[in-house]
Specification:
The protein has about 325 residues and is an alpha/beta fold. It has a single domain, classed as TIM Barrel (Alpha-Beta Barrel). It is built from ten helices and twelve strands. The site of S-adenosylmethionine (SAM) has 20 residues, from strand 3, strand 5 and helix 10.
Length: about 325
Amino acid sequence: MLIDRYNRVHNYLRISLTDNCNFRCFYCMPEEDYAFTPQAALMQADEIERLAKIFVGLGVNKIRLTGGEPLVRKDAGAIISALSKLPVKLSLTTNGVRLHDFIDVFKESGINSINISLDTLQAEKFQMITRRDSFHRVMDNIGLMLDIGMHVKINVVVMAGLNDNELLDFVAWTKEVPVHVRFIEFMPFAGNRWTGNKVFTWQQMLERISDRYSFLPLKAGVHETAKAYIVPGHKGTFSVISTMSAPFCSSCNRIRLTADGKLKNCLFAQDETDVLSALRTGADLERLIKNNIAAKAMELGGQFNKNFETLKADEVFNRSMIAIGG
Ligand code: SAM
Ligand code: SF4
């Protein structure tokens, strides 16, 4: 088992398949030109499978594929198929734009739950955020996923002054459509123009939603990062994810593998362990992995705390989100 010094058991691995992406969301990528990692430096499909098996041997039973955009990788389908044969709950987080090409892969791999990112219900604002004109394609693909019976979670990064005025529209959407909308507090990463006053906290979100709706809390799992609610009579639900104002580090069970094969024990961890090189040279991987997890900081990578108001984004030493894998 992968246990740290605070007795947290880590059984949930998020694997980034690539730091490449067909979108350019400003809150995820640095504004200046970002150099994507060359193909040869990425974990190859067989290496991802071998590493995943080692993690499964250490107690991982849940894997999420992410990126960058996981579905831009040419061998994404083959990787999904290979990992689906492991004894894990497999899912992925995607911007949704290529989902229509993966229906057969999902069916064959038994994937029944997917997270799709969508920060606005307005086509123009979508283009402003992602710098791509793909709003209608993503909306169509959300419909397609619902049609094939997928459990669809929608990730919305809420940024004060940008899309906080759409919270009620998103909740209205859940009336007839069985989507599970997750409102996420805006987090600081290298070059993403984060400032404390752009964080719209979970309390502010609930307050805003209560202007129009009465809602009931839903029961949460032990490691659940989202506080979920339902408006009685709605087919979908909504939840709030309070990473900044009320971090959930004490029950964290997540670890991350970047696309270039570095293990991060926290989204905000500064230290990384190069497990890909270790795999390639035949080093003692289990020991390296266990040491990495044992050294996990108590909260937020040891870099800041929930009093984020005075935090400066460039004081948080980290990669950009696109290079970590969200
Ligand atoms: N390309 C895929 C997508 O967009 O869903 C997967 C990778 S993306 C990095 C994973 C998740 O991280 C997305 O839901 C995205 O909205 C979220 N994310 C990226 N930057 C963020 C930030 N600064 N604060 C909060 N969430 C962020
Ligand atoms: Fe790409 Fe996802 Fe980052 Fe947007 S949030 S730039 S879609 S990786």
